[in-house]
Structures are given as C-alpha cells and as structure tokens.
Structure to design on (130 residues):
C-alpha cells in the first residue's frame, strides 16, 4: 500500500510535513499507552515533541495489507537515541535502544484515518536505564 510506505519513508526522513500529507484531516492517533489524539494539529505536535526527545530510524520493515486496501499493519525495529528527558521517564543521556514495534492503520480515500502504534515500554525503559 503506497500511502503506508510513503508515511514510513517520511518518518525515516524526519519529514513531519510529508507524514501529515499521508493523513486525513481528522486522523485518529492512538499513542502507545496514551490518549487518542484526533486531527493533524495534535499529530504534528506529537511528532515535533518526539523529534526533540528522540532520534529514531525504523528498519526491518514488514508491511501487510488487508484485502480491500482499507487496513494495513507493519512490524519494524525502532533504532533510536534518547536525546531529551521526557517527563515521567528516565533521564536522557544519549542512550541508544533497539525496540521491536508495530503499527496498525485504517485508510479511506487514499489517506490514513487511524494510526495505532505499539511497543513494549518496559523493554524501552530497561534499555535506557542501564
């Protein structure tokens, strides 16, 4: 599914505007262990925060598409560096991490209407705390 590939290509390029171009105006962003954020402005705010706090590249990408093209899923490895302390999380000291993760998508009229991301937060905390 081209829109999902474009979304992840934009993520790896650090291009928030290109990521937003893949989304519907009322996108539902289901954050791992967080609240649902609705709309592009909140998605942009989340991405800007993440870009300040983390430097991440996704590798080992596997994208699966459901019949009919309205849903997709992806598994990948997050290769990251923790740059700036996120409130409520361990102190950032430039720690690196490698974390399996996955995302689920709904697509309508060629745009992503839902992004749901999962990863093991306890595993991430362990990696950046050692």
């Amino acid at each position: 599914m081209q829109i999902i590939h474009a979304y992840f290509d934009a993520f790896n390029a650090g291009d928030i505007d290109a990521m937003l171009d893949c989304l519907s105006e009322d996108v539902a962003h289901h954050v791992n262990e967080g609240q649902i954020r609705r709309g592009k402005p909140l998605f942009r705010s989340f991405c800007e925060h993440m870009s300040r706090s983390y430097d991440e590249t996704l590798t080992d990408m596997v994208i699966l598409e459901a019949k009919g093209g309205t849903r997709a899923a992806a598994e990948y490895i997050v290769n990251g560096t923790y740059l700036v302390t996120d409130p409520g999380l361990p102190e950032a000291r430039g720690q690196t991490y490698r974390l399996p993760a996955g995302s689920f998508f709904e697509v309508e009229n060629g745009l992503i209407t839902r992004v749901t991301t999962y990863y093991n937060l306890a595993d991430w905390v362990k990696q950046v705390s050692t």
